[in-house]
């Protein structure tokens, strides 16, 4: 008897599109029915994004979010934990932004509103990927092209939603499904320590570190991520 594939919803991060998850769509199709949402670019409120994803989701599904996608995953868990069969949190944090970070986001919104949206530039790339990959034109061009695809208006909506997100640390102990907490070991935006914090607080969690990777391991080290997610889906 052939086992039924589990529905898997993937949520991209800030300035990311479905290209963030393309290697997982291609590599996990034998064990999951994979969908990448685009709702993360369409709303200015985390709750509205979560509601839109839930409105079109199956009654039960696996859920994975990277970075901003993780913030959205937390909101889905608050709203409909009974519908999430298992949860993967990649390169994200349950912590809210400190005030200085919120101010920086507001400044970036103001700059974008007056036409100074640059997407991901060469100067910003070290925040996203491992320094050894900065010379990989295929990877760096893909990261830049995702940002351009999201565009100024999508960026403003995303940053607005991020600023308003709640502190999710208080909800971690309530997550009772199998959870994968995964991080690129050299991630400078959401470092290992915040993933260790989530791993310690979620009752049924596994921590996986992806070596030689920054904030975007799904693109930087797709084979290692796929193996970790395959193990999680089969757990």
Summarize the structure.
With 235 residues, this protein is an alpha/beta fold.
For the sheet with most strands, the description reads:
6 strands, parallel
What is the number of strand segments? 6
Mean pLDDT: 96
Identify the strand order in the major beta sheet: 2-1-3-4-5-6
Number of helices: 9
By CATH, the superfamily comes out as Alpha/Beta hydrolase fold, catalytic domain
Task: Explain what this protein looks like in three dimensions.
The protein has 235 residues and is of the alpha/beta class. It has a single domain (6-97, 159-234), classed as Alpha/Beta hydrolase fold, catalytic domain (Rossmann fold). Helix content is 43%, strand content 15%. The chain is built from nine helices and six strands, in the order E-H-E-H-E-H-E-H-H-H-E-H-E-H-H. A six-stranded parallel beta sheet has the order 2-1-3-4-5-6, with helices on both faces. The protein is globular. The chain starts with 5 loop residues before the first strand and ends with a helix.
Which terms summarize this structure?
235 residues; 9 helices; alpha/beta; globular
């Amino acid at each position: 008897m052939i086992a039924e594939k589990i529905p898997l919803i993937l949520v991209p991060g800030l300035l990311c599109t479905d290209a963030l998850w393309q290697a997982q769509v291609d590599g996990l199709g034998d064990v999951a029915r994979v969908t990448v949402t685009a709702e993360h670019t369409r709303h200015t409120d985390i709750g509205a994004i979560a509601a839109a994803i839930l409105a079109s989701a199956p009654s039960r599904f696996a859920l994975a979010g990277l970075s901003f996608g993780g913030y959205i995953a937390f909101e889905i868990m608050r709203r409909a934990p009974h519908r999430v069969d298992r949860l993967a949190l990649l390169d994200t944090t349950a912590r809210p932004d400190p005030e200085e970070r919120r101010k920086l986001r507001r400044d970036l919104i103001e700059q974008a509103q007056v036409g100074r949206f640059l997407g991901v530039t060469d100067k910003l790339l070290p925040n996203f990927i491992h320094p050894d990959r900065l010379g990989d034109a295929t990877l760096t061009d893909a990261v830049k092209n995702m940002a351009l695809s999201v565009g100024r208006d999508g960026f403003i909506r995303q940053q607005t939603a991020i600023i308003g997100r709640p502190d999710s640390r208080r909800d971690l102990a309530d997550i009772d499904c199998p959870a994968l907490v995964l991080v690129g070991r050299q991630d400078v935006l959401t470092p290992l320590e915040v993933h260790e914090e989530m791993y310690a607080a979620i009752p049924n969690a596994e921590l996986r570190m992806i070596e030689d990777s920054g904030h975007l391991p799904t693109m930087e080290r797709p084979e290692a991520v796929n193996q970790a997610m395959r193990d999680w889906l089969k757990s």
